[in-house]
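Table 4 source record.
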Amino acid sequence: MSLLASYTVIGAKASEDLARKIATKLGAKYIKSELRIFPDGESKITINGKPNGKIVVVQSVPYLGYARQDKEFLQGEVITMSLVANMFKAAGATKVIVVDIHSKMALNHFKITAKNVSAIPELVKYFKKLHLKNPIVVSPDLGGITRARDFAKLYGTKFIALKKYRDKKTGVIEIRSKNQKHVKGRDLILLDDMISTGGSIVKAAEFLKKQKCRNIYAACTHALLIGDAEKRIRKAGVSKIISTNTIPGKTGLVDVSPIITKAIV
């Protein structure tokens, strides 16, 4: 049944492919947008069509911008997530759907409906096709233990979480876990919500390689891979990086349009 009269999907510049997939699944009208940036840094957005019905705007920013600034970690820090949430409401949004937000605490700042959906089921489907050898799911830190547990439960395997320490002022990362001898000879799925500079994944992979594991696969929802992150991750011993298409790129092999579409309707 077509939902053409009910929805219009507007694809913003960073998420055109994902937006088209969502529009197809909704049976909706698709409108492309254009972004122009002027020499002084100002930007202008043009929508190439007239939307009707319920309007869905699809844009990675890239994983809900400022979601990691949802509380005052150090004295004097501004809670920017609160401002962003208010901006969505002021712009006329009635509902915000995010995929694997870094911390669900950020959703508390919204005064409109805000829903988080998980890409884990789709990632699990992809990894089951790889036929890994006695795999184990690894979270690079204790903060991701719930994510690792959920992935492992759906996959039907075990999980562990490493103890990571990050200096809040310098950003320097170190792994403080004891030896993990039970990973020896096993394929590992190193799971995180996002990979930005790759620092956490690199430190975790280097540590796990010393435990004589087999292959390491880095999996995440949002692969920013800033700068030479991909090169550094592979150098650390990661065989393959697999992410979703919330951010376009060669690692974005897992389509999340089905879970977003389900959340919309």
